[in-house]
Amino acid sequence: DQTRIGSIRIHARILASPCLPGSGQHPFDPHFRPEPIHWRAFKNSGGPMQTSTSVNDYLRDHIRTVPDWPQPGVQFRDITPLLQDKKTFRLLVDVYVHRYMDARLDYVAGVDARGFILGAVVAYELNLGFIPVRKKGKLPYQTVEEEYELEYGSATVEIHTDACGKGDRILLIDDLVATGGTMIAAAKLLTRIGAEVVEAAA
Description:
Layout: E1 2-5, E2 8-11, E3 38-42, E4 48-54, H1 55-60, E5 64-67, E6 75-78, H2 80-84, H3 86-100, E7 107-111, H4 114-125, E8 129-135, E9 143-150, E10 153-160, E11 169-173, H5 181-192, E12 196-201
Helix pairs in contact: 3-4
């Protein structure tokens, strides 16, 4: 599913609709319709399972929900089991790479902190530079900042004023989208220093 807020397109469910190899379609084509991948999953023992599963379901099965964290009423989506498993981590990175390998990007920006894990790896695989979008007070040089609302409070993110140049095409990555506030704040920061946020993915 894609959401557009102002000029920012947020691909909020990349796991539900990845750009897949062999589809013959460019992810930014207005007629792009991603095709589901089906593959044979493997047990930890190395033996094949009897049934195949989609990449989407396979990745989702490795994301756990932690209720009432960090406060009561919040259903926290924890991606650490996905990162811990070498197969799912490799597969997740490949999904991102295949979606954006022809997108003519200049940088990948990752949102503090789990967005650093995914964003840096994807940037490396795409042979791009990486921009950290950090929580307030964590960057040493001149910064611009943006405050945003969380589902359980408010926070502020910052980037360096020289993080990228005017007209640079940026892919913005985080681990998940809850209210979308963090993504929108990060995109606003990049836009303020002249960059173009091509897409935000989580």
